[in-house]
Structure formats: structure tokens, C-alpha cells
Amino acid sequence: MKLSFYGADREVTGSCHGVQVGKVRLLVDCGLIQGSDNDSGQEFPFDPAKIDYVVMTHAHIDHSGRLPLLVKQGFKGNIYATGATVRLLEIMLRDSAHIQEIEASWKSRKGRRAGGKEVEPLYTVRDAEDVFQYFVPCRYDEEVAIDEGVKIRFTDAGHLLGSAFVEMWLTEEGVTKKVVFSGDIGNLGQPIIRDPQYVTQADFAVMESTYGDRNHEVPADYTAELAEVIDRTFADGGNVIIPSFAIGRTQELLYFIREIKERGLVKSRPDFLVYVDSPLANAATRIYAGDLEGYLDEETLAVIRSGKQYLNFEGLRISETSDESKAINFDETPKVIIASSGMCDAGRIRHHLKHNLWRPECAVIFVGFQAKGTLGRILVDRAAEKVTLFGEEIAVKCHIYSFRGMSAHADRDGLLRWVGAFDPKPEKVFVVHGEAEVCQLFADDLNEMGYSAVAPKLTAVYDILAGQMVYEGRESAPAADTLRQADVPKARHKTAADSKVYQSLLAAGARLMDVIARNFGGANKDLIEFANQINKLSDKWDR
Predict the structure, then answer these.
(1) With a threshold of 0.85, does the pTM exceed it?
(2) What pairing do the DSSP bridges indicate for beta strands 336-339 and 240-243?
(3) I need a labelling partner for 537 at 20 to 30 A (CA). Which of 323, 329, 453, 485 fits?
């Protein structure tokens, strides 16, 4: 009975954790690594064909975006998720694949001009659609036996429509242990969805720590403060640009803006237009407007009972086609533009930034977490006076705001509330899904509070029955601890293709360590034979 840490370990994106019970192997989440080159770092440190099941905490791409790659490389098992998560995944994975195809096409054209080779997308729309046959929709609070020795239950996490904490009962050798995976822990008081429904018992907990080092700056009135920025920007003649996650955050913004209009809070231009320029966000909004019994909070239900459409208002404009998107910036009327992606690393938002970043009368409002390495993080940190968009340098002269309190993630107090709900304390708390220093800081804080906590490294393996880490893992950036700069042969120029091949070699090495860890406790004669085979291979390649 083992836990393996395959992603979002001492980093924020790429969530993926492994569970082994006897011969059964499953994953909890299978997320895309964001803020990096999609051609590298996405390899699995295991054989996808040997995974039996996947359990999804929610639909965000950093938790789901490698599902098409998993199926493409041989996975053929059931994928369990709440019904709302399944509906969202069907649109999100198609959209992610579409982006992969567009970026690969762009890189191929650029490469051909430089005499290079064609670039293959990480996966295609067809690959994404191949995933859908494996979905098994589940309800909150329903216990599901997925195999011998494995039972799960989804509990509302209050992070995103359909998001869940995964309670998992594992039985091996007559011993049952309960592991709870937090996925992303929701913030209190979010519109539309319910607050988190806490779990009170766990032997082991795997929990996120995105905001483990700070509390949110919670405004007294979201709608009033958002309206104030919009009003001030319109009075100056500028546009308000909001990079927003297409699912969850965009719908929250529409909820707030409906309230702003109802309360008449924007005086300079009360009939202002709001453009949602994201086909994915528009598709998600249609899901949010459907039958969501069991998912919505009481305030939203009250709006619906009053006969109102809680995500619709006068002045809302939906942009679907690329021509409609381009036309937005040729209209000089001040307006609000909501576009994805939320971290500005892809999508239509980059076009709107190109047209508005250099204008001092405009404003960009960030309403979500910005991972290291993303354009959004650079802008929020005001780390550059100019940024490059579509090969052109753009001056950053507009006003930049960050509404941190609008986060869908629990802050430090919220995280402590989540882990504090367990009585008694879990035997071990694994702190994941946070920047490296935050993971370690939060784990240290938990230890001071009487918990037994650790921030595992990527590919670490923990034996639940033995109660010990059998492989410590490696740092998230593979080249950092496996290849020193002095070791690189200076006589040879390293190409992008070389780097990709080397990434595959690193992934193979990580998989070998995973196999070694899973043989912990094996017969001595088998372990000796295994060690001899590895040594022979090492002797061959130790140059």
C-alpha cells in the first residue's frame, strides 16, 4: 500500500498522485504542468498502460490536462469524477487540445522558416475525445467501490463547480487505511457554489498549500471595490481587461457584475458593455446556467427563485469567433473585457493585453493565482517595464490591480481550518500544490502545531503500512539535481530536440525509481537480481 507523488509536489501545477493497493494502481488527478514549455516536463514517471483507474478532484487543467496524454499512451481504465466535473471536463479537454494543436502549428511554421522539423502537439482534439468513454460520473456523498480493496467518496470542496475532496479507503493484508486528498480547497463565501464541506476523519491527508504562507486581502464588499476600479477607469477613457480562468472565475465575475449593475455602482457609464471573449468560458457559462441541483449555494438559489438569471444582464456581449474577438479592440468605447487564460500564458487575453497594456488610461485586474514563470505573474509582480507579445515589445503603462481576496483557493487560515477538522490528527500530512518554499513553510508550521507533516519531493514514494518514505524523490526541475552544468560536454551544441529526448530519459529514470520503491519489502533473491541488472545497465552507459 503506497502513495507516489507524481506532480504538484513543491510546485503549483501538474497535480498527479499515485496510489497502489496490492496489484491495483490508480491516480488522483492528472494535471498539465503550466508556466513551462508544453514540449518538455509533461512526461509521466510511470507507464500509463499499467494504471487501472483515475479519480478526479475537479476539472481545472492543472489537475486534468494530461488525461488525453494518459489515454494516448495506453490507459484504458475508468475515470471517476462528480457529474458536474465530467460535464466541465468534456469542454475543457477539447479546448486544451485545440490550444495544443494551434501552438504546435505555430511552432512548426516558425521552425520550417528556420530549417527545423515539424512540431507535434502534446495531444490532439481526437485524443481528448478518446478520454470521454472512460468517464464515470458520481454524486457527492456516494460511496463507490472501484476495485477490491479500494472505495472512494466525493465531498464538496467548494473550489469549483463539481470540485471534491476525495476520501479513499484502502484495504490490504486485512488492514484498512483512509487517505483523504484535498485537491484544491475552496475559499469561504464564494458566489454560486457552496462552502467547503469538511471531512473529519483520515489516517493520511494529502493537502494543497497554494496560499499556505498568507491570508487573503478580503475586501469588505467585492462588488463595490470592483465597481470602483471600473468606474475610475471608464472616467479616464480606458478599458478594463480581466484575465480570467474560463471556468469558475468568469462565472463569478458575471455574478458580481450583475450585482454592480443592479446596484448602480458605476456612475461614469452605468450602461457599460461587458465582453466575454472566450468560447470555453461561454460553453462553461451554459453549463452553469443548467440544472445544478445539489451544487449551488442558497444565495444563488434565491436569485433563481426570484425569476432572475444570475449570470445574465443588460450589456453582456458574448464573443465566439476570432473576427468578433478582433473587433472588440477596434471599438474605442470604454468596456470590460473578460478573456482567458487566467495566467495570460495562452489564449485571447494576450491579444487584448497587446492592445491595452501600453495605454496608461486602461486597467488590468487579476482575480486569481499567478504561477511562477507565467506572464500574469510578471505583470502582477511588476517585474518588467516591457513584455513581448506576438514578437512585439509592449510597454507596461496601464494600471494593474490584484484582487487576491477573490481567490477560489483557501488562504492560510482556510487551510488550517481544513486540516483542523480531522479528529484525531492524521498519522501523516503530505503538503503539496504550493511553491517549494511555501510547501516547506506550511509543513514546518503544521509540525510545530503537533502534526506529523512533510512536503514530499517529486517521485517520492511513501509506504503506508510500513509508515515510512521508501524513496525521497527528486527536485521538481529534473535537470537541477541530475545534471550539473560542468557535466555538459562543451564541444557539442545542445538543440531543442536534444533537450526533449533528455527529458524522456529523465522520465525513464524516474519510472525506474518508482519501480524500485514498489519492490520495497520484496524477497532478497529478487532484489539482488534486480540490483545486478541495474548495475549491468549502469556499467554499459557510465561514460
Answers:
(1) no
(2) parallel
(3) 485
Most distant CA pair in the chain, distance: 80
Q: 54 with 62: CB under 8 angstroms?
A: no
Beta 135-138 vs 79-82: how paired, if at all? parallel
> Which segments of 264-371 are extended strands (E)?
274-277, 316-319, 336-339, 363-366
pLDDT in tens, 73-104: 999 999 999 999 999 999 999 999 998 898 88
For 458-515, the pLDDT digits (tens) are 999 999 999 999 999 876 544 333 322 323 333 333 444 445 565 567 667 767 876 7
Please report, as a single letter, which amino acid is at residue 231.
Answer: D
Q: What is the DSSP string of 163-176?
A: -EEEEEEEEETTEE
If one compares 506 and 133, the residue with the highest pLDDT of the two is: 133
Q: Which three cell numbers stand for residue 63?
A: 489537475
> What whole-number distance in Å separates Cα of residue 542 and Cα of residue 489?
15
C-alpha cell at 300: 444563488
Determine the CATH number of domain 2-214+408-482+494-541: 3.60.15.10
Whether 78 contacts 134, CB under 8 Å: yes
The answer to whether the beta carbons of residues 299 and 239 sit under 8 Å apart is: no
Nearest to 4 by CA among 522, 527, 534, 510: 510
Domain range summary for the chain, segments of one domain joined by +: 2-214+408-482+494-541, 222-406
pLDDT value of position 386: 95
Cα–Cα dist 58/186, whole Å? 11
> What is 222-406's CATH topology?
Rossmann fold (3.40.50)
